[in-house]
Design goal:
Keywords: Membrane, Transmembrane, Transmembrane helix. This protein is an all-alpha fold. It has helices spanning about 1-45, 50-100. The two termini are about 25 Å apart. The model has no long low-confidence stretch (mean pLDDT about 75).
Amino acid sequence: MAVAVVVVVVIRVVVLVVTVVVVVVVVVVVFLAVKSSSKSNSKSSDSSSSSSSKSSSVVVVVVVVVVVVVVVAVVVTVVVTVVVAVVVAVVSAKKTLKNSPT
């Protein structure tokens, strides 16, 4: 039973760390992309409208990626918790059946 709790905690921590790392990497990459595109667009003055559409599409991509990562993290956490709970229930039921006099 204690092992199951440790497994759930470790998996939750790993999922949380991976989620945070992915979100930070996506935000940094998007920030650098927007920064580099604004530098290249400042050189050519006629592409200001394409610059705003590029940055808005980049923001949409970032939001979608972050939402997907968070949803996947929540789903993985819930699935792992349910699977470990079922395994613990089955193991404890087997122990109870073995210990009960027949």
